[in-house]
């Protein structure tokens, strides 16, 4: 009887862990909590990753409900492993999106950020392998966008006594989510914040290029955002690096409202690498800005929802 009850308890524990990440419970234990209670809250600094399928709405329109669920589960199973292998855990599946946290128990902020960045690069590898399998079945390849940020979050429980859920909230979560949503605009696979790069430190080998100076929705202070290039071919990295000086100079001119100077640099970037959409994006932005009446306090940062 006791063995039967122990087996039942073990099965129940394993089932619950599929809905509540074990790492979340570990956070409670670390801060002295031994059971999940409504309203419990802990603060921690973590790296946050958002990953979303591009064009998912159009893709899902052509699937029957059962097909859609099979597709999502197949995709999520492949995306799960790179996150767990890099000491992260999936906090939520939000439609076709994944929200993951990297807390590297006992580790430094740099280690947490490094885990998240490596997971993002490994997700790109997993996606390439998945697309190779999809090609064999004559399915269209998938594209995903990934956003990464590092900062403080609040981990807690919300709901009511008979129905509660674990959650992670805070400005840092909003930033990571907004960065992922910007990937289609900049035609970038992985976008990271300047804070993320500062946390990694100058000694960490990661290849990036400056994309823009933006103010994400829901936040007052603007941030610099960067594109990660490590997963691209060497030739493509060189081409994108070749225009970096002009992009940075053009953005500096934009901040000073020097529209002609900004356009000069951005057109030079187009001349060096015509296929790169980044410079053309900034040219379109400048042409719109010079037609607008800007507030005296405008600081050169673009609102993420202001321009398409």
TrEMBL record:
Pfam families: Guanylate_cyc. GO terms for biological process: cAMP biosynthetic process; intracellular signal transduction. InterPro entries: A/G_cyclase, Adenylyl/Guanylyl_Cyclase_3/4, Nucleotide_cyclase. Residues 47-180 form the Guanylate cyclase domain. GO terms for molecular function: adenylate cyclase activity. PANTHER family: ADENYLATE CYCLASE, TERMINAL-DIFFERENTIATION SPECIFIC (PTHR43081:SF1), ADENYLATE CYCLASE, TERMINAL-DIFFERENTIATION SPECIFIC-RELATED (PTHR43081). This is Adenylate/guanylate cyclase domain-containing protein. It comes from Salinimonas sediminis.
